[in-house]
Design goal:
alpha/beta, about 270 residues, single chain, globular
Amino acid sequence: MSKILVVGAGYLGGEVVRVFREAGWDAQGASLGGGEGLLACDVSDADSVSSLPDAGAVVHCAASGRGGEEAYRHVYLEGCRNLVRRFPKAKLIFTSSSSVYAQHEGELVTEESETIPDRATGEILLEAEKVVLDAGGVVARLAGIYGPGRSVLFRKFMDGEAVIEEDGCRFINTIHRDDAARAILHFINLSPFPAGEIFNVVDSVTMTQLEVYKGLSEIFGKDLPPSGPRDLNRKRGWTHKRVSNAKLRATGWEPDFPGFLDAVASL
């Protein structure tokens, strides 16, 4: 049985552990505090990472805890450096973010598209990606994660707090947690391992904000949210782009939830 370590076994990482175990792997999760069957590991601390057991595959999906530049540098950049040093021969996957694409004119974005983040945190993610790619790892650029018990769009709509920004035509790029976890398993199982490759991990159906809220209105019989200005304080920054998953799908992966509205029952 192969051994895989999932560093950052939170909302996404916990599902990654479950998916790998279901597939027959010896999967072990690690988190900052440990507990509940998890190893304790501060990914930003080299000594802490050095204490982790050997593994043939490692996934870095620790979160910054909504922190700023310093947290990003510690968790992502230093974290990737520490994992590369500790596991030089392992298959390494780093879950980055599609927020490194700052396009705002509705462009179709592929892995070859320009990456000029509008925030310092995005630049730090790119530095961390380079560490992993140079070491022969895989970078998974995840769109906004949603799933059971977690969806800002869904929660705001149901709570009456949603606002349609201007004309609502901004594209929303999302990925269901379970599909993201399955994509990570898919990367590890690919033969040969796609060393040094970047993949966008995003739903197959990209919808506008207005289309999402119209769909939710029809499903739940509620009025459309009111219109308002752009939310320029979004954690991932304000962008307007269509992130393509064509490269990932070409390897044989398909999402169980093609688009956000297909997953409403799971939320």
